[in-house]
Structures are given as C-alpha cells and as structure tokens.
Specification:
The chain is of the alpha/beta class and 446 residues long. It is built from 17 helices and 16 strands. Helix 12 links the parallel strand 8 and strand 9. This is PLP-dependent aminotransferase family protein.
Length: 446
C-alpha cells in the first residue's frame, strides 16, 4: 500500500497538496521510493490517502514541474531525481529546512557518474573477488591511472611511486606516523583537520603566515631553518582557507630551502583541480616534494580514495609500516575509482563552471559592505573574510543562533590567532548563498 510508504505525511497547518508533494520527495531521498518506481493512478492514490483527486493532481503536478516525476502517455508517473539535484556540487544537507550549514566545503556525488561507475565496476569484479582483498599499495590499474595524470601534468611518474590511501587525511596520517617529525612547518591559517592530525602526532608546529596574496617568504626561510630535519606541510594550490596560489618563484624557493635544511616537503594537492581561472593550467609542482591527492573535493568524499606520490623507495617503506593497511580503501572502492578517473576532466569542467558562478555570486552579494573585506580567489572553495570591529567567533555565534553555521578564523589557526577572520564557502547553490548573506549581515550588525 502506498500509504505505508508515506506514513505520517500530513502536517498540521500545511496545505494537503504541498504536504503530499513534500512527503514524496522525502520518500525518494530516503529510498522508500526508488528511482523508476511507478506511482498508483491518481484515482487510486486519492482513495488510499483519503483525499480528493484534486489534491493528488496538484501534488503530482508540482512534483512533475520540479523534475521528481516523469509521466508517459498511458503508462502513469514514474519517480526520478531532478537533474540539477543529482548533479549539483553542494550536498543536500547544506540547505536544509530552517538551517544552513557551511562549516564544511564538500561536494555531493555526481550521481549519474558514480552510479554508472559502480555498475561497471561490479560488472568486471570477478577476478578481484577471487583474490584475497588484502591491503597493499593499491590496485595496479588505479596506480597506473593516477601516475598517468601526474605525468600528463608534467611530473613523470611511475605506478610504483603511487600508494593508494583511504583519502588525503589517511595519507597525511600515514606519512606523519612514518616520518615522525619533531618539527613541522605549517601554514597559518591552515585546514583545521590537518592541524588536528599534527597536534595528535606530537610534532611541534612552526607557523608561516599566508594571506590571499601569498606566502610570507621571509618567514618561510626562518621556519625551514627552525624545522631542519623535519617536515613542511604546504597547500600550494588554492590554499584552504585563503585560496592563495603559490607562484613559481616561491615554489622554487621552497624546494631550495628543503634541500638546504633537510626538510621533507609534503604538498597537499586536494584543491589543485579546483582551479576557477578562465583557462586553468596546472602550476609546476614543488621540486622533490611528496604529494598528497584525493577525489574528495572533485568527486565525492564518500568515495574514500586518495594517494601519496613520492619516491618508490618511500612507498616501499610505507608499505612495510604495520599501520599502512589501516589506511587502504576497500578494493571495490578502488575499482569504482578506476571507472571514475577517466571521466574526471569532463566532471571538472562542469564543477568548475558551477563553482565559478557561485563564487562570483557570493562575492557580488558581499561586496560594498564596510563590515568586511576580501579578495576574490582564483580557485578553491571559499572566501576568506576579514571582519571590521568584531571577531569571527562573535559573528559565527550570532549567525548560528539564526540558523547559519560558519567557522571563524581561530578554527584555522595553529596558535589561537586569526580572531578577525571568517571563512564563507561558496559551495552552496546561489539561492542558499543569498540566505546565508542575509544571516551574515544580521549577525554582524547585531
């Protein structure tokens, strides 16, 4: 009975047609109604739900206009997902009813690409399922695909230089555990998860200031000298949260400092493909750096596939580490990644266009206000606002009371500074960004 699928669909005070349409949407998203399911006839549906046929017609018409249903002549209505919902960058939870959560700048899955990739991966999984599934360096096919992408961008790479991990955080945790640095050069501001990983490792952090204009080169030299024999963890491509892009001269300087002071540079490249310039061209990588990448910002965080690219000797050493297997994704996920990677450039074109449009929309909505200043980043996922006369924690707290969750600058600080800053991601749809700006202005003015 359809009534079982929509149990409790009536909402006090809500028009019946709107409540019914909303219940069908929720049932589709929860999986109680599957894409392709056929709905009962309007007459039968009205009888089962105890409402007029006019109510059902109005509800189904609304769902049809929004793309939740498709109706064929003589074949009734079938469930589908609206195209813009299945392909947009922002997760559905970002713009939930009554609240907006912009603390994490992460994508939803490109539904069509991922579901088709899963189907294809299962279709050719026979040999994989006949093997042990034990952790290792990664599926040979996946390592080769990742190596080919690096080589195509000008960094000649062999598959044996790639170690597949369950995301970028797993890659970082494995490297830090293996290298066990006494001191680590970090960026200020830096990504909060990265800073937390380093704090738990017990390493002493040596901050280098980064602004939207770039890295403090004077401080870089002093920090590398202080961290001699240790590690430097940098995000040279569209740094999170500033969006800064390290220029070639500074990259060469970093490489020279690393050699001079015996520092291992780990370059986090999770944002490298979020290049929003009109004609994206990958920047040259930092010489001799160990790089970390993942599919979390370009494809989906739920596809836990990342990698380390470094000397083959380092990859062999990491594989001998007992904790290495804990950071390896399941082989079926790796097989899905093998299906997705050849489609990545097409997906990037779509996602860059969407993010570019949302970035420009948010910048326009925030411009001309004396409450803050910001620079338009060339890539990345957020605007880095400097507030005038009030702290980021104060604005974030007031905004949260109104239903908008944001992270203040102190969350990105390795030493408790950056109190005057606030990160505002532009990963949400423009309608959601407009609501966020309204909340932000009220929180600041209050």
């Amino acid at each position: 009975m359809f009534t079982d699928v929509l149990a409790g669909w009536r909402r006090p005070g809500a028009p019946l047609a709107g409540a019914l349409a909303g219940a069908v949407r929720e049932a589709v998203l929860d999986g109680r109604l599957r894409v392709g399911d056929r709905l009962p006839s309007e007459r039968r549906l009205a009888a089962e739900l105890g409402v007029s046929r006019g109510t059902v017609v109005a509800a189904l018409s609304s769902l049809r206009d929004e793309g939740w249903l498709v109706t064929g002549h003589g074949s009734g209505s079938r469930v589908r997902l609206p195209r813009d919902l299945g392909e947009r960058y922002a997760p559905l939870s970002v713009d939930g009813r009554g609240s907006l959560d912009l603390r994490r700048a992460v994508p939803a899955a490109p539904r069509a690409i991922v579901t088709e990739a899963v189907t294809r991966a299962l279709g050719r999984s026979a040999r994989l399922l006949l093997e042990s599934g034990e952790p290792g360096a990664g599926l040979p096919e996946l390592r080769e695909l990742i190596a080919l992408r690096h080589t195509a961008e000008g960094l000649a790479t062999r598959p044996e230089q790639i170690l597949v991990t369950s995301g970028a955080r797993a890659a970082l945790a494995l490297l830090v555990a293996h290298l066990a640095p006494r001191r680590t050069v970090v960026e200020s501001p830096g990504f909060f998860d990265t800073l937390a990983t380093l704090r738990r490792s017990g390493t002493r952090t040596v901050p280098v200031r980064v602004t939207t204009r770039g890295w403090d080169t004077g401080r870089l030299a002093a920090a590398f000298r202080e961290a001699a024999g240790g590690v430097a963890l940098l995000v040279p491509d569209f740094q999170n949260p500033t969006g800064a892009l390290m220029d070639p001269r500074v990259r060469r300087e970093v490489a020279e400092l690393a050699v001079r002071h015996g520092v291992t540079v780990i370059a986090d490249e999770t944002m490298r493909d979020i290049d929003l310039r009109d004609h994206p061209v990958p920047e040259p990588r930092i010489g001799r750096a160990v790089t970390i990448g993942s599919m979390s910002k370009t494809v989906w965080g739920g596809l836990r596939v990342g990698w380390i690219r470094g000397p083959a000797a380092l990859v062999r050493e990491l594989l001998l580490d007992p904790v290495s297997g804990l950071h390896t994704p399941p082989p079926l996920e790796q097989l899905v990644a093998c299906e997705v990677l050849p489609l990545l450039d097409r997906l990037l074109d779509q996602r860059r266009a969407e993010l570019r449009r949302q970035r420009d929309h948010l910048a326009s909505a925030l411009s001309g206000d004396d409450g803050w200043t910001f620079s338009l980043p060339q890539g990345g996922l957020a605007l880095w606002l400097r507030l005038n006369g009030v702290t980021g924690e104060t604005v974030a707290r007031r905004a949260a009371e109104a239903g908008l969750s944001l992270l203040p600058g102190t969350a990105f600080s390795p030493d408790g500074t950056l109190a005057d800053w606030l990160r505002v991601p532009y990963t949400a749809p423009v309608e959601t960004l407009d609501r966020a700006v309204e909340h932000l202005r009220r929180a600041y003015r209050s």
